[in-house]
Amino acid sequence: MNSNSAADLAMFPGQGAQRTAMATHLLERYPVAREVFDQADAALGMGLTELCTTGTAEQLAATDITQPAVFVTSLATWRVLREAGYAPSAVAGHSLGEYAALVAAGVLSAESALHLVRVRGRLMAEVAERRPGAMAAVVGLPAGEVIRICEQARATGLVEVANFNEPLQTVLSGEASAVREAGRAARAAGAEKVVELKVGAPFHCSLMSAIENEFARELAGHSFTDPVLPVISSVTGDYLRDGAQARELLRRQLSGPVRWVDVVLRAGELPVETYTEVGPGRVLNGLVRRTDPDARVRSTGDERRLGALVDALSPVPAGPA
């Protein structure tokens, strides 16, 4: 069976997908993945390969480490799949994952994306040091109800919707006291649960607006070209028009919400028949399934699943004449 016969969305995960030894299966079997990591180690001047194979969960949790680690692992996975003949119909990335998606679509070079991801992680970590915040996932309430709760809780501090992850899972971000107050209100309104997220910073809220100008200057120093593959932006939930818009959306992404539900719904209009998570973990598989229960999903975050997909992509050798 040729896995490219149906419309396929390549999805790249974001922060939170990291896990210990997440690149081991790539480096042990695929030379092209080793090339990607060797180039990243040289560019960053740090042992990212070691961190992604033998690093501890605590080491990988630091925002300025997590972001390049997830990005490079995703990019290495993409290169493995491309070498095997993978050709998706469109690409998308969840927050940080948008950088890998833009490389896959030819909008950014891998070198530029790696530099920007490293700077992004550093700047976000600095925000967290100056103004520590919190994030929490609200499960079991419609997004409109969570937005209303945030508006009411702002009397106690800054709290905003950071992620529209699935129809009944919405993530809050902001000042810790206001996030806790919004969480209490969500439980009172009937939420199934409110889960505080172990993250390095209050992502995708107005606290991050403090770094937008500095990051915009970094973005201006890199070339953005028009996509050669359709890209569905997680900032707008719609297709990317051109390279100039890609640059602007990466700036807006810092403090704007991730509209993943809109990404999945837009992809369904193609219609996408298969959603392939390219990189560590299976977080996006779950979000897609809970947005579109009929969706076919597959992941690449371990040796068995990636190997099975590579084998399915590879042409079957011709038998004797």
Q: What is the average of the pLDDT values?
A: 95
* End-to-end gap: 21 Å
Output the structural class: alpha/beta
Low-confidence stretches are 1-5
SSE sequence, one letter per element: EHHHHHEHHEHEEHEHEHEHEHEH
The largest sheet is: 5 strands, parallel
Query: What is the number of strand segments?
Result: 10
The strand order across the widest sheet is 7-2-1-9-10
Number of helix segments?
14
**Content of β-strand:** 5-15%
Radius of gyration: 19 Å
Notes on the protein architecture:
- This protein has 321 residues and is of the alpha/beta class.
- 49% of the residues lie in helices and 15% in strands.
- It is built from 14 helices and 10 strands.
- The chain has helices at residues 24-29, 31-44, 48-54, 57-61, 63-84, 97-104, 110-130, 143-153, 176-188, 212-220, 243-253, 260-268, 283-291, 303-313, and strands at 8-12, 90-93, 133-139, 159-166, 169-175, 193-196, 231-232, 258-259, 274-277, 296-299.
- The strands form 2 sheets. The chain has a 5-stranded parallel beta sheet with strand order 7-2-1-9-10, sandwiched between helices. Strands 6-3-5-4-8 form a 5-stranded mixed beta sheet.
- Strand 4 and strand 5 form a beta hairpin.
- Helix 3 crosses helix 5 (63-84).
- The two termini are 21 Å apart.
- The model is unreliable at 1-5 (pLDDT under 50).
SSE map:
Elements: E1 8-12, H1 24-29, H2 31-44, H3 48-54, H4 57-61, H5 63-84, E2 90-93, H6 97-104, H7 110-130, E3 133-139, H8 143-153, E4 159-166, E5 169-175, H9 176-188, E6 193-196, H10 212-220, E7 231-232, H11 243-253, E8 258-259, H12 260-268, E9 274-277, H13 283-291, E10 296-299, H14 303-313
Parallel strand pairs: 1-2, 1-9, 2-7, 4-8, 9-10
Antiparallel strand pairs: 3-5, 3-6, 4-5
